[in-house]
Structures are given as structure tokens and as C-alpha cells.
Amino acid sequence: MLDMIAIGISHKTSSLKIREKFCLDPIERELLLSELKNEPSVVEALVLSTCNRTEIYAHVLSADPEILFETLFKVKKINPDLILNAACESPISVSLRGAFFATKQSFKKIASRKAFAMTPSDKNSHTKLILKNHFYFYSGREVVYHLMQVAAGLDSLVIGEKQILGQIKDSIELSRKKGMMGKYFNILTNMAIRAGKKARAETQIDCGGSSVSWAAVEMAQKILGSLQDKSVLIIGAGKMSSLAASHLKKKGVSQIYVINRTCEKAMELARQFGGQVVSFLDIKNILEKVDVCICSAGAPHYLIEEDIIEEIMPKRIGKKLVLIDISVPRNINPAVASLKDVFLMAVDDLKNVVDGNLNKRQMAIQAVEMIIAQKVEEFYEKLSQNILRSTTASSNAQEKSAREAHRMAPSYGKSH
Fold this sequence. Notes:
Blueprint: E1 3-10, H1 16-19, H2 26-37, E2 42-49, E3 53-60, H3 66-76, H4 80-87, H5 104-114, H6 120-131, E4 136-139, H7 141-152, H8 163-177, H9 183-202, H10 212-224, E5 231-235, H11 239-250, E6 255-259, H12 263-273, E7 276-277, H13 283-289, E8 292-295, H14 306-312, E9 321-325, E10 342-346, H15 351-358, H16 362-408
Helix pairs in contact: 2-3, 4-6, 7-9, 7-16, 8-9, 9-16, 10-11, 13-14
């Protein structure tokens, strides 16, 4: 029996303030899969964590998502005292299923009734209930449809983005490495990848800008009017930074500075786009003179604090500083947005740029939906064939064993 469930939190259901609490780094993804592997009720699992979503897909013996929530909360070490205020924010939208979700109002009633008698255990439990309001839950056919939507780029902040396919492939490889990719999820993920490739090959879903990095550069240009002859600091040297550098060069920026934890990657990115590698120790000097800073570092803490920007702004003499943080969790302290002449944008702030580009893709969305519907049917057809083959093989094996046992059994009543 194939019982599939999925839980997730994304830009569609939650603010960045909540979402970043559940972003999983590579080590946490491995740990989560290891924890699920130790659960008897979990047969297969896939973990996807990007700047816009954290999702867990599972093939389980019982369609109860509680085990997925508990494992995620355990790995992320949810601290109710640190996130309670953020957790009480209303979800962006309600696409939730199941009666286990609590409401903000219900928590307030419980907290009020218990007043100061609420124990740490009570607070922890109720905080988790509130947090679940920001998650969505899918089961059965919904899981298949949702994963294919994600793979096709329909569920992304930037509709049709190409990076999600690579991120899903990385998740598949990690699941396989941890022994959590079995025959059912092999079929599912292969079909999802094929749906994503077909959507981009046969439609215009990825026409124009199709990445968060593109949206970040567009936002910088919108604020400054033009990026021609501007100077930019890029913090981080991964795929998102590389895409940003490519878009910046097309806009005619005059200088790109690169800061990264490992010098080798920084040098590679700088060499590719004619940039200059600088040390993090020189960040104040660089921020004094650049027009834009795009941060995609993936650090677990703030790299740019309010005091740094507060110190350098008087030296810029009224010159605008555009800071765009596309890291999740955020790497630039949100407090810097209150400073004069500082324009801070995070991932969720790029929505206006994205919406402006959406009109070009509306017709493609319908075509992609048809591709997904077709692939969902193909998945279940292939699944049925696989189950039938397994059943036939098992039946044949049993029949063969019975014949062998009958042949080997001693004969009675024969004369010698």
C-alpha cells in the first residue's frame, strides 16, 4: 500500500521571519533523513530546502504528518521563547488540511487561562501548534501533483525558475545516499524531473527573467534608475551569486567585488566575471564605496550588522546604498532598513518585480498544468504496473516453492 504525505512551509504560506527558522542546511538535511530512517512508520523520504521553501515528502505506513513535524522541530531545536512572537503572526494564506492545526486565537485563550502557570513544556507544545498554521499538508494524489508543480516552477516565487530542478536532483541524491529512496519514490521523483524538463522545453514558462538573482538585480536597477557604471559587492560565491553576477554584467556595472568564506570559490567567480576578490575584514571599506550589495552567503547568522552600516553611511555623503539579501536565513540584520539612504530588500520584497514579469507567462502556465496532469496519470499507471509485476513475481515464487516442496516430500504407501 502506497501512502504518501508531505508537509511544507513556503513563501505562499509564511513570512520570511518564520520561514527562515525552518531552513535546513546540508548537515541538518542529512540529520533529518537519518532521524526519519529510524522511524518504523517511514519507508521513504525526500527533503527539499531552498530560499523559498522547506518540504518533507514521505512514503509512510500511516498518513499522519505528526512524525514529520516532530522530526523537523527536533532537528531545528525549536525554542518557544525565541520564536513565539514571530509564530503568532497570521499565515499568509490558508491552504491547510487536517484538524491538528491550532489557531492564534486558541493559543491566546490557553495562555490567558494558564497565565503565569504555563510550564516550559506547555509553552513548547502550544508554540509548535501555532507554527503548524504556517505549514501545508498534502496526502495521496495531492503529494504527486504538488511535487510536479514545484519541479515545473509553478510554485516558485519566480514562476518557471530553472534552479529548482537542480535543487530537487540534489535532494534525490541525498535521499538515495541516506538509504531513503526506494522504488516508489524513484518512480515519483523521476516523473517529477521529467515533468519539469518537459514544461521548460515545450512552453515559455521560463521566458524572460527566471531566478531570484534576476529579480534582485532588477530591484537594484529599479531603486537606482540604472546600474550602468555602478559598483557592486557580492557576498557568497554559489549558484545564486553567479547568476546575479551574470545579470549585473549585462546591466553594465563597472566593478564587482566578491567576498566568500572560501577564497578558491571567490576567485573562480571573480575570474569568470572580471571581478575582484576582497577579504571580509575589508567589508567596511568596500561598503563605503559600492552602490549595491547582494548577499547570498547562506551563513547561519547576520554578516552585516546595523553598527557597520551606521558607521559607514556618513562617509558616503548622502549616496544611496542598496542592500539585497537573498539568503535564507537572512544574513543582513533587518534593522539596517531604518537608516537614512539605506534600501534593504529581502527575498519576499522581490514579489513586485516578479509579479510584473508574470503576465508574459500566463498562457504558459495553462500549458504546464496540462503537462503536470498528464505526468500525474503516467505516475499512477507506472505505479500500478510496478505493483502488478511485484504481485505476479511474488505469486510465481510462491507457486514454485509449493511445487518444489511437493516434489521433495516423501512418498507414502508405495510398494517397493
